[in-house]
Design a protein that fits this description.
24 helices, globular, four-stranded mixed sheet
Length: about 750
């Protein structure tokens, strides 16, 4: 694979290398710049390898006086923001037009360089010539009219110890414009504004996402895969490998199949190369490198893009993609032959008599089939001769993709029906075919719950998926939350990000299952959930740690849905069937129950309404009286600040470090919890353990309040606060161990510092 990959690259460089010239640094570049560029002196007369060409898209100015000028849509003029290595583009307006120059150092107008010609979020720019605003609608209209172009802003070359940033030259721009692709993928992009943002700007096919030079390179490399296969076959026969004439797709074992197999990897490398060779690649100023197309599962619009050198020995060079693939092949040798079958989950028979563990598609999160076309169009060109049946269609098949995609099914409601019906049928196939002696485990990527007031939590995709599982005849005997997603996504963004996966443990529900009423269902929940919740939050020692607060709302679903799903139906008072959504809300209510002291109940409800911000004293006084306490007493307890007609809860960082719980005459659980968080943050498990030992019998109430507050913070979208409570519980086992080993202070001790 390495050998023929190198052959392909060498052959491609012979054919199209002229489109990727080196750049010669001249004395004029170093001396004639304003100010001069002493950093270029050592390169004068040398030809440097170009790493990337940086372009800005353009549209004609909306100002009538400059309507003949294509002005740049640049989201930034910064090239490098590394300390001590700053570089930036500075546009120079002259002769009725403009040109770009490159400067090094910190720009005088730092804000202007940072923002380029962008005015605000979205497609809002200003005309470089006149400062006339250009709104998104104008830019969309220009794009759809095929009047969007591009202008070279800067050239990035490889220096002795880093990047060299150079101003564009007419020669470099002219060479790029000489590229004449003979083919481009005409597969249309889907009109899905959630994941595909280029369509509204006139980039409507996958071919539109590549520059002419990129199209030439990708086409050349794709075609070379076919040539490489013929060369491999010939070389294999000469080397003595027999040839049975059977292709890889026909389970051949000779030279033909061998050539096909190597060709598959070469084709995959070219396909991967496309990720780093599109006009949706960005130049990352903090890293001084080109960033691939897919930073997330979407195709966003990129205004100023990086065109990588296909022979630059960095991202965008096919050998870089191939070398990364080879690391996997080297370390994961195949010991047995594998066989892959593509089947529709709604009608498959592969699971008959099998132990099944499956990860179905998530409700509507990502349009994988649509996004796959970005790579498919190149794979098809290079590998259709190898797998003619697999690549028979012009685009990836999508009709049977089991996701609720509104644009594909004529609206959100119809998409949900499609998903529910299809998933129910797919789950039914599993339920009727899976081995009866073993449970079926089903993975589901759970999103951070959607708020639904005091009714508990819900999530449309989760509710719909769970309904499909139950309608298929499964009963759920357990749910396991798994930390499968990066936790910093949720914490850093505070958004409705995927937090974890839930593993559903399912078995077939007996055909003789009974029907019960809502009242009977709630009575059984009351008997099952308290014990289950207690076991989850306490853990059972050893390897069985307490369930983290962030996962509790998912984990409690197991025993709750175990009750709901073992019955054929749960009937509401009017005789209608209880929905899965209603059942989940009833289950989640148990997480909202609290039985704390009056001061803590005041703090809990005040936090829900005001967080850490000020509130009116009169409102606080009314709430306190309703909870059987008073504002002055709560202030004396040390958990609120009261004065000037305002009341505010104190954050954990504001709590005193010389606090001694044994001498505190008014000690609400709220105060103890936040002192414990302070001790953990400032002194780790040992400090928190010493404090927990001094708190004595309040440990269980503190832990329960931490769970309650985490759930509340999650619902309110307060990710940073949620993390503090989550950290406490995930450290609870270590804190308890430290508490058990902490020396007991003498009764006469006057203070404890934690």
């Amino acid at each position: 694979m390495r050998y023929y990959g190198q052959w392909m690259r060498d052959e491609a460089e012979k054919r199209i290398g002229h489109l990727y010239p080196k750049i010669e640094v001249t004395a004029e570049m170093a001396d004639s710049a304003n100010p001069p560029r002493p950093d270029l002196k050592k390169y004068v007369g040398k030809k440097l390898t170009v790493i990337a060409w940086l372009w800005a898209r353009t549209v004609n100015s909306p100002n009538p006086a400059f309507a003949h000028i294509a002005v740049p849509l640049a989201s930034t003029f910064m090239l490098s923001t590394k300390a001590g290595k700053e570089a930036y583009v500075e546009p120079v307006i002259e002769g009725g037009g403009y040109r770009f120059t490159v400067k090094v150092g910190v720009p005088q107008d730092a804000e202007g360089a940072k923002n380029g010609t962008k005015l605000s979020r979205g497609a809002n720019f200003k005309c470089l010539m006149s400062d006339t605003p250009m709104a998104g609608d104008y830019i969309k209209a220009e794009g759809k009219a095929k009047r969007m172009g591009a202008r070279l802003m800067a050239i990035v070359a490889e220096g002795e110890r880093g990047r060299v940033y150079l101003a564009p030259t007419p020669e470099m721009e002219a060479i790029a414009l000489t590229a004449q692709p003979t083919w481009k993928p005409e597969t249309p992009l889907p009109d899905d504004p959630r994941n595909f943002w280029t369509v509204q700007y006139g980039l409507t096919t996958y071919g539109d996402l590549f520059t002419p030079r990129q199209l030439v390179a990708l086409t050349t490399f794709s075609d070379l895969v076919t040539e490489a296969r013929e060369r491999i076959k010939t070389d294999a026969i000469v080397a003595g490998l027999p040839d049975d004439g059977l292709a890889l797709a026909k389970v051949g074992a000779g030279a033909t199949a061998y050539a096909d197999a190597v060709g598959v990897y070469l084709g995959m490398a070219v396909s991967k190369m496309a990720d780093a060779q599109s006009s949706l690649c960005r130049w990352k100023t903090t890293m001084d490198q080109s960033i691939a197309t897919f930073g997330r599962q979407a195709l966003p619009m990129v205004w100023d893009y990086s065109e990588a050198n296909a022979f630059g020995e960095m991202a965008g060079d096919p050998l870089v993609s191939l070398k990364n693939m080879m690391r996997v092949v080297d370390q994961l040798p195949a010991a047995l032959a594998g066989h892959v079958v593509q089947a529709d989950a709604q009608s498959q028979s592969l699971s008959a008599g099998s132990v099944v563990s499956t990860d179905p598609p998530y409700y509507d999160n990502i349009g994988y089939a649509d996004l796959s076309d970005f790579f498919y169009v190149w794979l098809r060109r290079s590998l259709k001769p190898v797998f003619p049946d697999l690549f028979a269609t012009l685009a990836v098949p999508k009709a049977e993709e089991l996701v609720a995609t509104p644009y594909r099914h004529g609206g959100k409601e119809k998409a949900e029906i499609f998903f529910l019906d299809g998933m129910t049928q797919a789950m039914h196939r599993l339920a009727e075919q899976a081995h009866p002696a073993f449970p079926v485990t089903i993975y589901y990527a759970f999103k951070q719950s959607e708020s639904d007031g005091d009714e508990g939590t819900s999530n449309t995709g989760w509710d719909t998926f769970l309904a499909a599982v139950l309608q298929a005849g499964f009963a759920i005997s357990g749910t396991w939350p798994m930390r499968t997603e990066l936790s910093n996504r949720m914490i850093s963004s505070g958004t409705n990000a995927l937090a974890s996966s839930i593993v559903l443990v399912c078995h077939q529900r007996p055909a003789t299952a009974a029907t019960i009423s809502r009242r009977e269902f709630i009575r059984e929940l009351n008997g099952v959930l308290p014990e289950a919740l207690d076991e989850m939050t306490k853990g059972s020692g050893g390897e069985h740690s307490p369930v983290a607060p962030v996962d509790l709302s998912q984990a409690i679903i197991g025993p709750g849905m175990g009750v709901f799903s073992k019955y054929a139906a749960v009937l509401e008072a009017d005789g209608s069937l209880m929905s899965v959504s209603t059942a989940l809300k009833l289950i989640n209510r148990f997480l909202a129950e609290d039985d704390f002291d009056a001061d803590t109940q005041f703090c809990l409800h005040w936090f829900e309404q005001h967080g850490w911000t000020d509130g009116v004293f009169g409102t606080a006084d009314t709430l306190a009286r309703g909870k059987g306490t008073n504002v002055d007493g709560i202030r004396d307890a040390g958990v609120i600040q009261s004065g000037g007609g305002k009341v505010r809860l104190l954050k954990w960082a504001e709590y005193p470090t010389d606090w001694d719980p044994r001498t505190d005459t008014r000690l609400p659980v709220w105060e103890a919890l936040h002192h414990l968080i302070r001790a953990l943050k400032q002194g780790g498990d040992s400090a928190a353990g010493s404090l927990l030992a001094a708190l004595g019998g309040k440990a269980e109430a503190i832990r329960q309040l931490a769970y309650r507050l985490h759930t509340l913070c999650e619902r309110l979208g307060q990710a940073e606060d949620a993390r503090a409570y989550n950290d406490l519980i995930t450290s609870w086992t270590g804190i308890e161990a430290a508490a058990n080993s902490a020396p007991r202070p003498a009764e006469s001790q006057a203070r404890l510092d934690f």
